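[agent] plan:
  1. take the single chain provided in the ticket
  2. run structure prediction with default settings
  3. attach structure tokens to the ticket
  4. add a short note for the reviewer (M.T.)
[agent] executing step 1
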Amino acid sequence: MASSPNEFLSYVLEAMSHRALVSARKMFGGYGLYRDGLMFALIIEDELFFKSDAENIAQFERAGSHPFSYQTKARRVELAYWSAPAECLESPSDMGDWCQLGFAAALRASAVKSRVRKAK
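[agent] step 2 finished; step 3 output follows
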């Protein structure tokens, strides 16, 4: 497997390419991964995280994943992104399934934001 962030990013993008067109943008000291303009995953320090929400979090928990978090001066912050299960990095089929879970969560979050904007 890859050893540098750019190699890991290339590896992940190649694995994801079997299911959809995915692009990457630098952010947070890592990369945001986008499909159809929606961020559905991120890579931080050679670790892949997928977007999560109430509908898919149980699947991440069952897979032994953990949430992405970071420490500020005042507190620990957890984002709605959970680590990719190890098997998804080894199998294009599994990668596609987990990508779809993350993308579906991104779609749901986008729909909520859209409804809120329309209500204002």
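[agent] step 4 note for reviewer: The mean pLDDT is 90.
[agent] ticket updated
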